[in-house]
Amino acid sequence: MNDKPIAPAPRALLADDERLMREQLRARLAEVWPELQIVAEAKNGIEALELAAEHRPDVVFLDIRMPGASGVEAARQIAQLPPRAGAGEDELLPEIVFITAYDQYAVEAFEQGAADYVLKPAERERLLVTAERIKKRLAARRAGAEPPADAVPGVPLQQLLHRLSARMTGAAPQYLKWIQANVGSTIQMIAVDEVLFFISDEKYTRVQTAQLEALIRKPIKELVDELDPQRFWQIHRSTLVNVDAIANVTRDLRGRQIVGVRGHPEKLEVSRSYAGLFKGM
User: Fold this and answer.
1) Has this prediction a pTM greater than 0.85?
2) Dihedral of CA 230/249/212/237: which sign?
């Protein structure tokens, strides 16, 4: 008798402002991934965010260009959704798949990033490749295992989203250089380059340097968009770490990845949603 628990059927959200494209994608997905449940469909990025927060799908298929809020903007917000009540801080974030018309830059960005993509119109063969990739990633993340060998490694999702956003707006992003923070009863200006990591709780974010600890009221979901994603990596819903400050990455007795920080004794836990950043550990 096999007592291994059966994984629940994966759930997906489709977002595209063109009804016919949604219908075609739904039909193709039924062919290549019949167990996938389409729990909601959105006509724009704002609806996509609202429905993602309501249904908490395992996969979100987002058209890049939609009215109201683009797929890139929606993805940035979906990637920062807080955990549901009682779910715990380590609740998995959805896998993101972008739907796009052919764009050489976008294709190159996706091939180096932590999200998959499907070109319009969605062809069965290409969608089958995406489905197999996502299924492997979901299984690995649920098991707390290393990402599969063919998973897209290395480039964090936040870097990919910043690149695509800059491409769409045509404007180079401007990143924070200074943090205005409370240190005891005084306000101090802290150079971003000196920050080792940021950790948030419900009300405040702790700013940690090698010399001091300070507090700000800005949440991680805002800092993610204001800090250079090549310098600060999100490793948990509540944690951003300066890549230059990472001394090592080890595993604890539970198999979780733990980041050691240069110049500070604190150990930072990597949640399952971000374990692919340190593939091979």
Assistant:
1) no
2) positive
